[in-house]
């Protein structure tokens, strides 16, 4: 089995380990936080299974803001490098699956981003998933999706936006699972973990949440009514909303 130490050392073999947890300059802040944390783990500053310093301490040592640090930690959790235990803290994972560093998902996170390319990719993926799911959706699937929409609202109205965002992500994964195709499920699950990092920002007001819910209902109704012609418009609106609100909240 590939150990975390071996994986990290191979990943960083061309990088110096001399600088860990030093203050970060301007630029791609999130990427640089990730780089610092991974180097610190590879250098042995943080051991396998060890709890990382508190958010406040990391912010002070790295000289970064809370939002950037949290986004970096969510990405590291997605990659299986750390695990975030709510109410307890963040820990270095005690094992890592070889499939965690899927090159496709990794490139989406770390490559130089093109917003237009990302929107085009997500529209293509969502349309394909919807068209495939429409050929296989059952009454029980529709009941499950409707229940998930209600659960998202319940979480939001309770003030737990983090859970609402997680359930939002799971809603899209549930649609992919309707396809009953492990390749589709695995790809969508992995890629949506990346998209999920920005979901909480796009439901941070009642207006935005209501818009997001409306788009969920549009997708649901497409499947319920087997309305192939409505898929393109429903997906386009949903993706445009995600893209525009994501950029607005990070501007």
TrEMBL record:
For the keyword Transcription regulation, the answer is: yes
- SMART domains named among the record's database cross-references: FCD (SM00895), HTH_GNTR (SM00345)
**Family matches, as InterPro entries:** GntR_C (IPR011711), TF_FadR/GntR_C (IPR008920), Tscrpt_reg_HTH_GntR (IPR000524), WH-like_DNA-bd_sf (IPR036388), WH_DNA-bd_sf (IPR036390)
What's in the keyword line of the UniProt record?
Answer: DNA-binding, Transcription, Transcription regulation
Q: Which is an annotated GO molecular function term of this record?
A: DNA-binding transcription factor activity
Q: Which CDD domains match?
A: WHTH_GntR
Domain named HTH gntR-type: residues: 27-95
The family database entries (PROSITE patterns) matched by this protein are listed as: HTH_GNTR (PS50949)
User: Is Transmembrane set as a keyword in this record?
Assistant: no
Name of the featured protein: FadR family transcriptional regulator
- Organism classification: Bacteria, Bacillati, Bacillota, Clostridia, Eubacteriales
């Amino acid at each position: 089995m590939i150990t975390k130490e071996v994986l990290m050392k191979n990943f960083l073999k061309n990088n110096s380990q001399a600088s860990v947890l030093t203050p970060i300059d301007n630029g791609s802040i999130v990427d640089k936080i990730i780089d610092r944390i991974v180097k610190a783990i590879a250098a042995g500053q943080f051991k396998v299974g060890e709890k990382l310093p508190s958010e406040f301490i990391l912010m002070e040592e790295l000289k970064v803001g809370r939002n950037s640090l949290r986004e970096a930690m969510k990405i590291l959790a997605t990659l299986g490098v750390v695990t975030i235990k709510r109410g307890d803290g963040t820990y270095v994972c005690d094992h890592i699956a070889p499939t965690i560093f899927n090159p496709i998902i990794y490139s989406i996170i770390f490559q130089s981003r093109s917003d237009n390319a990302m929107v085009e990719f997500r529209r293509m993926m969502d349309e394909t998933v919807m068209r495939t799911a429409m050929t296989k959706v059952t009454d029980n699937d529709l009941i499950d999706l409707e229940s998930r929409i209600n659960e998202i609202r319940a979480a939001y109205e309770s003030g737990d936006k983090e859970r609402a965002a997680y359930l939002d992500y799971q809603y899209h994964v549930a649609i992919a699972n309707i396809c009953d195709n492990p390749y589709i499920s695995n790809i969508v699950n992995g890629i949506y973990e990346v998209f999920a990092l920005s979901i909480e920002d796009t439901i941070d007001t009642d207006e935005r949440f209501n818009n997001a819910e409306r788009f969920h209902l549009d997708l649901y109704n497409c499947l319920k009514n087997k309305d192939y012609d409505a898929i393109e418009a429903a997906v386009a609106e949903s993706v445009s909303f995600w893209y525009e609100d994501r950029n607005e909240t990070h501007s």
